[in-house]
């Protein structure tokens, strides 16, 4: 190895699915309008999976995506119900016999806690019929309540009531082709008058006295009871019962000197200490260690504080093939006792807060043995002995398992699931680079090759191979700018220069073959060392945490994709192999673990009836096993495309082929119920991909020159793209949606060459919602029969934040919020916003700024969407249902406090007495609970993929001990094992029953616009994910690595390796107004 002196430093959709299995009415089961009696014991069950939900390019139509990957990192991880009569006394809002959905009840608690208006019982708000907006229709309000805590309901007060009045008619006709279900567009004078009341309020007032409550003053809603609606069944969950130990747990602080950052070294030191001193000084205790600062024992150690000397042999050979011995001083000091009594109280529902310290101790104890056997990554453990497969470009997948202890209704459970992730292959560096570049190593490297190699190798640990048994390890910091044959360094004080090639030949007898390649730089930049690539080998066991390319993702999915029966067998085999009964740490702490999957009572919710247009042969449809098709049906609200053009960027597609494709697509749109002109405004335009902006603007100008004199707009742009189109897709979407203000539909050339009827039918679904139409609607929504939705104006929000890919350390995160824009819950408007890197709280829900003319002005995403809902429906929402995606359990309080407060402020900015009731539900998809059929051979219990049936819901046993949560598998599996969605209610002023919220959520999953299948998470949350993914294309494009994803907030930010703490976030370009109004992200 050559040490260089300091003076010589060198310079990705859920695709539209197959339309299968038409529906009939046989055996239809309608949701109950009144709650079913609560049966003793409740029912337990649940599930979630994601049917073909890979977050990717939303509108490149066709093709079935794999269900397991959902726009995530490279690691691929393998209810409130009950009869309200029983609940009325506790919940204080429902009298006996009141139909769910239209109850009389007192005002709900408010979040604002600084100032409360006096409670005026003399004021009885009068409900306005929803179908008849009158002078008071913009004045819906309710007096603020005094109580803050969500879980404490005020007593029923009969003198303060809100009488429910039906606000819709069930006799709406859909006989006219293309008719819309929403009311007539209000006249300008009506809108102006209403908005005077709606928007123009004193702007500064709402922000006063509205600081978020602290987490101590808030409690998540308690489970109101278990659901009873649906067909009962038994499913198995990958949760294993854990017997709570009866031990006295102690926590000790650990200080290791000299301090090291590696958990592995810390564990080696502690392991040596236990071996040396367990019998003599530790009272024969076997402690569990977290690898950092904490040590746990089952019972006290025979001292309060003590220091130990621990000799440790270095794992690396030193000079002369000898291993060096280092001495560490370890101080152990009593810190606290971990009280398991409070954990028992929590599991019994007698304590509100989970004692995290006790759970953490038990988790650390159960991680001790697998940590010594496998490679730990987060809560998972991997080993090449459990299975390894090549992923390409120097990467391979390792198989492993996830393990976590969880508090549930049945007590503690150990959640175990199969998992796979990417590791760097332990190859010679030369072989790794050859795979990475996929080219002959004898050819010289281009600048792009150097960038790719440097990006892939930076931070990787290598060991040298040219010094016999002395396998010293180094971490790569970069590449030399010169080839190895050009590198020389001073060997003495007179600065006599010697080449690297000559030095290795003379010192080690090693002849460097690839002298045209650069050397690796190891160590830090101030004291860099040169190592030729061919003397280095990558150390085994290094996880690859950066972004995988499409081919690697596909290969990883093939590895992780397992049929439910196979996955269940592997989980059971893992539990058996882990031999928890013989685990010395588990035995020391008295932990006993069942070896059987947990059997859980579940219910299968029926599919909802879907409405199609009366002009079709089939006017409504009952999906079968989560699927249906468009045969003999017409869209319930067909959009209009009178003016459209086509631009072809695929040079292999001839003009006549493109023209024929457009004709087929136009015909299908008409057949499906749209009004669609058969001829484009101008003939098909062919263009080169590298001129996308120039061509788009020139073509748009040409078209508008023809249309504007006629008072017309361009309704749709059809684009034909090459199959591999780099950044073209993102550039096109950015220009169309933020600059020109047109909606576009992209189609890949492979589908243009082979036009299938199924493909163009799926594309027609997307086009319809992009131009303002609706594909289908819930029959119950049209008949005003949805509990907790149809009794008064209700807006449903979906929100998500997507973060940059691993390795993009300075790119902003993107927040997206969508909201329903019609009374039938079929259309959703969307807004997007950039915010700080890895910031999970949505910053722009509510904001204020100073205007030189108007003074303090309020705005934000919530306010804008509320105003849009009012413009579209002429009603002010009295109820808000907010589905929030992407929040982990550790962020629940933080997200609720911040975002519920923002919702409150946005509402208050629209009127001093405007306080719609809010239900805030977190949607979780990245969890490890899997549900399996109790009998895999029972054809009535599984779908064609072997998964549990769509509509399977679980709200007991494996759910939270006291809070309102449930697992719902709302979709049919395609391949692999379905993952149920986990819904957790964090705030509920609407007092949902378990049946009502579970049925609403399940039914909404059948209204997803892009395919004729139910989907695995509620559509507003899904749409928010798509909108956030789309908005990443609006940022300045990253040119490195040929990716089509936008990343980086500017040139200055792009080169920053560490998280950009103080980098200002460049705002996204604004969506054009006409784009915001439609579902452009589909």
From TrEMBL:
GO MF annotations in UniProt: RNA binding
Biological process per Gene Ontology, one example term: regulation of translation
Output compositional bias ranges, type Gly residues.
Answer: 42-64
Pfam families membership:
ArgoL1, ArgoL2, ArgoMid, ArgoN, Gly-rich_Ago1, PAZ, Piwi
What segments bear the compositional bias annotation Polar residues? 151-161
Write out the entry's keywords from A to Z: Repressor, Ribonucleoprotein, RNA-mediated gene silencing, Translation regulation
Q: Which InterPro entries does this UniProt record tie to the protein?
A: ArgoL1, ArgoL2, Argonaut_Gly-rich, Argonaute_Mid_dom, Argonaute_N, PAZ_dom, PAZ_dom_sf, Piwi
Its domain of life?
Eukaryota
Annotated region Disordered: the residues are 1-224
Q: Tell me which residues make up the Piwi domain.
A: 716-1036
- Its GO CC terms? ribonucleoprotein complex
Q: Where is the composition biased (Low complexity)?
A: 11-20, 27-41, 167-182
Q: What family is this?
A: Belongs to the argonaute family. Ago subfamily.
Protein name per Swiss-Prot or TrEMBL = Argonaute 1
Q: Which organism is it from?
A: Olea europaea subsp. europaea
């Amino acid at each position: 190895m050559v040490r260089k002196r300091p003076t010589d430093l060198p310079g990705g959709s859920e695709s539209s699915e197959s339309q299968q299995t038409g529906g009939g009415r046989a055996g239809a089961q309608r949701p109950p309008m009144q709650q079913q009696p609560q049966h003793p014991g409740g029912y337990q069950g649940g599930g979630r999976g994601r049917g073909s939900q890979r977050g990717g390019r939303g509108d490149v139509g066709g093709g079935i995506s794999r269900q397991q990957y959902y726009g995530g990192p490279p690691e691929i991880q393998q209810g409130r119900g009950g009869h309200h009569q029983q609940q009325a006394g506790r919940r204080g809002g429902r009298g006996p016999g009141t139909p769910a959905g239209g109850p009389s009840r007192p005002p709900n608690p408010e979040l604002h806690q600084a100032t409360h208006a006096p409670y005026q019982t003399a004021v009885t708000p009068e409900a306005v019929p929803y179908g008849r907006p009158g002078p008071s229709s913009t004045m819906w309000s309710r007096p603020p309540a005094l109580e803050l805590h969500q879980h404490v309901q005020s007593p029923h007060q009969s003198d303060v009531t809100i009488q429910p009045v039906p606000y819709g008619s069930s006799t709406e006709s859909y006989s006219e082709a293309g008719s819309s279900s929403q009311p007539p567009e209000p006249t300008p004078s009506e809108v102006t008058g209403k908005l005077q009341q709606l928007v123009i309020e004193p702007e500064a007032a709402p922000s006063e006295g509205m600081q978020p409550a602290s987490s101590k003053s808030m409690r998540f809603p308690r489970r109101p009871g278990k659901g009873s609606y649906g067909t009962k069944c038994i499913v198995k969950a990958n949760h294993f019962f854990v017997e709570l130990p009866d031990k006295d747990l102690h926590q000790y602080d650990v200080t290791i000197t000299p301090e090291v950052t590696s958990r592995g070294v810390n564990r080696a030191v502690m392991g040596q200490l236990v071996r040396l001193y367990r019998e003599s000084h530790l009272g024969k205790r076997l402690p569990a260690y977290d690898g950092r600062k904490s040590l746990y024992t089952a019972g006290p150690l025979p001292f309060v504080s003590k220091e130990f000397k621990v000799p440790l042999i270095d794992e690396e050979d030193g000079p002369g093939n000898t291993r060096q011995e280092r001495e560490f001083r370890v101080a152990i000091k009593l810190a606290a006792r971990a009280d398991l009594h409070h954990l028992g109280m929590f599991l019994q529902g007698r304590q509100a807060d989970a004692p995290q310290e006790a759970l953490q101790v038990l988790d650390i104890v159960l991680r001790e043995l697998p940590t010594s056997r496998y490679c730990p990554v987060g809560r998972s453990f991997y080993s090449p002995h459990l299975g390894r497969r090549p992923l390409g470009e120097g990467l391979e997948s390792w198989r492993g398992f996830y393990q976590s202890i969880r508090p549930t209704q049945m007590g503690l459970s150990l959640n175990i699931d199969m998992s796979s992730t990417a590791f760097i292959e332990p190859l010679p560096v030369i072989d790794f680079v050859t795979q990475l570049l996929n080219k002959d190593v004898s050819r010289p490297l281009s600048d792009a090759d150097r960038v790719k190699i440097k990006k892939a190798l930076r931070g990787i640990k290598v060991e040298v191979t040219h010094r016999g048994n002395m396998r010293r390890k180094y971490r790569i910091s970069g590449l030399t700018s010169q080839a190895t044959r050009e590198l020389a360094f001073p060997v003495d004080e007179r600065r006599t220069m010697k080449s690297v090639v000559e030095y290795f030949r003379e010192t080690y007898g090693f002849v460097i073959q690839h002298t045209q390649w650069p050397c690796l730089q190891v160590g830090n930049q101030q004291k860099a060392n040169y190592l030729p690539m061919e003397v280095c080998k990558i150390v085994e066991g290094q996880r690859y945490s950066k972004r995988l390319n499409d081919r690697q993702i596909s290969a990883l999915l093939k590895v992780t994709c397992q049929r439910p029966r196979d996955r269940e067998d592997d989980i059971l085999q893992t539990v058996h192999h882990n031999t928890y009964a013989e685990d010395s740490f588990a035995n020391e702490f008295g932990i006993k673990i069942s070896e059987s999957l947990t059997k859980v009572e579940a219910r299968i919710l029926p599919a909802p009836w879907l409405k199609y247009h009366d002009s079709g042969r089939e006017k409504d449809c009952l999906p079968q096993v989560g699927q249906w098709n468009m045969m003999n049906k017409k869209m319930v609200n067909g959009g209009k495309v009178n003016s459209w053009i086509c631009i072809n960027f695929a040079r292999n597609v001839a003009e006549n082929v493109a023209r024929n494709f457009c004709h087929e697509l136009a015909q299908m749109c008409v057949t499906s119920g749209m009004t669609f002109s058969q001829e484009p405004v101008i003939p098909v335009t062919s263009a080169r991909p590298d001129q996308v902006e120039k061509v788009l603007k020139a073509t748009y100008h040409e078209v508008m020159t023809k249309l504007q004199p006629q008072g017309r707009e361009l309704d749709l742009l059809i684009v034909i793209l090459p199959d591999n189109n780099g950044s073209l897709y993102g550039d096109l979407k950015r220009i169309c949606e933020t600059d020109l203000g047109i909606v576009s539909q992209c189609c890949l050339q492979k589908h243009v060459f082979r036009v299938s009827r199924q493909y163009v039918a799926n594309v027609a679904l997307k086009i319809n919602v992009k131009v303002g139409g609706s594909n289908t609607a819930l029959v119950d929504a049209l008949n005003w029969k949805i509990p907790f939705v149809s009794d008064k104006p209700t807006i449903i929000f979906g929100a998500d934040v997507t973060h940059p890919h691993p390795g993009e350390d300075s790119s902003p995160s993107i927040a997206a919020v969508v909201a329903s824009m019609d009374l039938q819950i079929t259309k959703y408007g969307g807004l997007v916003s950039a915010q700080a890197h890895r910031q999970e709280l949505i910053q722009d829900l509510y904001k204020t700024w100073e205007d030189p003319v108007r003074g303090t002005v309020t705005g934000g995403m919530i306010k804008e969407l509320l105003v849009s809902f009012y413009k579209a429906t002429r009603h002010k929402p009295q109820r808000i249902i907010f589905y929030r995606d992407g929040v982990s359990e550790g962020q629940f309080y933080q997200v609720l406090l911040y975002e519920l407060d923002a919702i409150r402020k946005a509402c208050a900015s629209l009127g001093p007495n405007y306080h719609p009731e809010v239900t805030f539900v977190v949607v979780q998809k990245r969890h490890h609970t899997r549900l399996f059929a109790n009998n895999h051979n029972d054809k009535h219990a599984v779908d064609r993929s072997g998964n549990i049936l769509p509509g399977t819901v679980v709200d007991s046993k494996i759910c939270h001990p006291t809070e309102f949560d449930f697992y719902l598998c709302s979709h049919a599996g395609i391949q692999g094992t379905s993952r149920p969605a986990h819904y957790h209610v964090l705030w509920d002023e609407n007092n949902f029953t378990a049946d009502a919220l579970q049925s609403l959520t399940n039914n909404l999953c059948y209204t997803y616009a892009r395919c004729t299948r139910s989907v695995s998470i509620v559509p507003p949350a899904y749409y928010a994910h798509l909108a956030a993914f789309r908005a990443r294309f609006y940022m300045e494009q990253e040119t490195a690595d040929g990716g089509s994803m936008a990343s980086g907030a500017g040139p200055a930010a792009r080169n920053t390796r560490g998280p950009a703490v103080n980098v200002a976030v460049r705002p996204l370009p604004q969506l054009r107004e006409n784009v915001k109004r439609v579902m452009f992200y589909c």
